[in-house]
Design a protein that fits this description.
Elements lengths: L2 E4 L2 E8 L10 E5 L10 H9 L3 E5 L18 H15 L4 E6 L1 H12 L4 E7 L4 H10 L2 H4 L1 H5 L5 H20 L4 H11 L4 H10 L16 E6 L7 H6 L8 E6 L5 H4 L1 H14 L1
């Protein structure tokens, strides 16, 4: 499959199928963050497909050209979770090994909480459990690390700052956080598509709408991979995540930056394959 639909929106998908797919074989769904797209997982998906795991990497709502509704409410977490459920239904898949990075991690936490019966395992990259993140905002330097979220609430100005002067602001932010120039340019080019950056920022702007994620305890086997050089998540938020998983839990703190799908594909794939092997 290369796309699926929900409520009139068309979301693009990269479908990495093993060379010899087994009927009913394991399936992974890989959820990207800001300002990525599904290509962030190309190396991870190749490793999974080589081991017999079908990997579906959607360009999520706001990132697919056919799924950029106006406003903030369409980007609330319940809508994003419903998109993942629609992807599973369209692919004819009952249960998946779910992977999420950055904002995709928030969606993955919420999906696993709301749909444990459809989540064979969970692998989250960087993003603390939402309740742990709130804990960190109150008790650590997480508020300072998340200050940019407040800046994104301002209408139109963030778009101008990030995309002005041929995208110098966004390009500089991405390369300073560790992305290679070519990869940063790819994501910048995607954000310069009509309406793309405003839609991607809609995920942040939906936070004050009152449509909270409502994410509670997760009760599926979970691996949490973090990067010690990730500037966005405080140690207190990371440490507090364990308390919100009522299931087998592994935390692996890597000597890595924020961009785990791109830079630590082997570790991400190994975590998923360990869940597959465990059944």
């Amino acid at each position: 499959m290369d796309a699926f639909t929900r409520d009139g929106l068309v979301l693009d998908v990269r479908d990495h199928v093993p060379a010899e797919p087994a009927p009913g074989g394991p399936v992974a769904v890989l959820l990207h963050g800001f300002p990525q797209d599904g290509s962030a997982y190309d190396d991870v998906a190749a490793l999974l497909a080589a081991r017999g795991v079908r990997a579906l990497a959607p360009d999520q709502r706001g990132y697919s050209p056919g799924a950029r509704p106006a406003g903030r409410r369409p980007y609330a977490v319940p809508e994003l979770v419903a998109d993942v459920r629609a992807l599973l239904d369209a692919a004819g898949v009952d249960r998946v090994h779910l992977v999420g990075h950055d904002w995709g991690g928030s969606v993955a936490w919420a999906f696993a909480h709301r749909h444990p019966g459809r989540t064979a395992s969970l692998t989250v990259l960087g993003t603390p459990h939402p309740a742990a993140l709130r804990h960190g905002l109150r008790r650590s330097g997480q508020a300072l690390r998340s200050a940019y979220v407040l800046g994104f609430q301002v209408p139109w100005l963030p778009e101008r700052v990030l995309l002005g002067r041929n995208g110098a602001g966004l390009r500089r932010a991405l390369t300073r956080s560790g992305l290679e120039p070519a990869r940063a340019q790819h994501y910048l080019d995607r954000m310069r598509e009509p309406g793309a950056l405003a839609a991607a920022l809609g995920w942040y702007r939906a936070l004050p709408t009152g449509q909270g994620d409502g994410t509670g305890p997760v009760r599926v086997p979970t691996t949490y991979l973090t990067g010690r050089r990730d500037p966005f998540f405080a140690a207190a938020s990371v440490a507090a995540t364990r308390a919100h998983v009522d299931a087998p839990f592994v935390h692996d703190d890597l000597d890595a930056d924020h961009w785990l799908p791109e830079h630590r594909a082997g570790d991400v794939a190994a975590a998923v394959l360990a869940h597959v092997a465990a059944g």
